[in-house]
Amino acid sequence: MGPHPAVAAIRLAVRRVLHDILNEHTSPSGNSSDSPHERPPSPLVLVACSGGADSMALASALAFEAPKLGIRAGGVTVDHGLQPGSDLRAEEVALRLRQLGLDPVESVAVTVGREGGPEAAARDARYAALDAAAARHGATAVLLGHTRDDQAETVLLGLARGSGIRSLSGMAAVSGGPGAARRYRRPFLQLDRQTARKACMVQALPVWDDPHNADPAYTRSRLRHEGLPALEKALGKGVVEALARTAQLSRDDADALDAWASQAATAVRDAAGLLECAKLYALPPAVRRRVLRRAAIEAGAPAGSLFARHIEEVDRLITGWRGQGAINLPGKVVAQRQGGRLVIRQG
Q1: Binding-site residue set for ATP
Q2: Same domain, yes or no, for 233 and 273?
Q3: 23 and 122 share a domain?
């Protein structure tokens, strides 16, 4: 008799990702040795674990699957220091990871700032700690326990921000960290939260439910406990799956538009490298705005502070030209139209 369907599902999801990692690690274009007689060292894969059902299920599946493929498996838990006793909780999670057979395992304490709100600040601190841990241990990849439900929430939050198709594309199955473009892997994006919780239950894995996840002070928590249930009540049970599918379709579209804009960014410049307004005007708006955003970032505007409204103002220098003056952008970058050319530079 095989494992419970929920356990089989999480193990299959992790096995697929581990095979991808192994193929990349041993491919000729990877970091393996040029000598056919020298085998590359076994890759190390870390799991980021909060002690919640999603990440505990992920840790258990990694501990089960990695040894069968000759992959070393470790774990990291991050203590955000936001609740009394969080240090003891983190040590408890680290102990559970060791009991699963993961090695190395460490608990990392971080200081959460205030920039961008509490949720964003905690996320920034967490990813910085995970990047540092991956670098410290020489890890090939870090697995994250985001589920299809998390993806649906991310799409709705992006929709509420009104910031375009890229924000509707949710979380990528593979994404990067500093100097490691494919560091983060999310094996559970096609699985629902209930499957992960069920897998923990049938394996008798203790699970910690973070009180922040039920705290109405947090936007995502309100969406999870009030917004999505209301949508499901009004539209039916397939909402989460449909939103996750929207994320994938949006990601494909956004990737295609980014590639088009990358090619167009060269074609719209004159011999001196200046942007030609007439050629910019001829581009589809979605491509043109991407070219403008890229040019602003190259001139020194911080990507995280450059919003859609900034790009729309610059775009009006092309599409609604009435002799208006220079546009001030974040990072002391200035955009202005000069004799049929768009000049974006540090002011």
Answers
A1: 50-55
A2: no
A3: yes
